[in-house]
Design brief:
158 residues, alpha+beta, two-stranded antiparallel sheet, two-stranded antiparallel ribbon, 7 helices
Length: 158
Amino acid sequence: HLVFSTLHTNDAAGAITRLLDMGVEPFLVSSSLECMIAQRLVRLICPECRAPAKVSELALKNFGVSEKPENVNLFAGKGCPACKFSGYRGRTGIYEIIVMNDCLREMVIQKASSQQIKRKAIEFGMRSLRSDGWNKIQKGLTTIEEVMRVTQIEETVE
């Protein structure tokens, strides 16, 4: 059987600890979970008033990116009638997906923390919410402030 469910957590790895906190035995979580997906909605920069924006080195550092301001091309909405002077119009999702494997299953059985599981999932190629957000920032779809608003602090994005 395939079952889909919703849990309210900060990230995909948090689903594991939430299930354990609810009293589900680690061996059941480990053997039953196939995939966890976390999603957040971020506002899109208004295409009518989108303009290049400057960013400080501190803002990039706080976001978790080691890039220098002169090496990134970011955008922001100036505000116009189309976006009711907010600079944003519409929304899009940012996502992270953890696909379980033998290593992650063993970590669940050993009751590893959600941060340990997340770090290992990143080693296996998972893109975090913040990292997916950075990808959309670089494409000019949203802003650093918007992604920071809906995600938690992580070690690094890159």
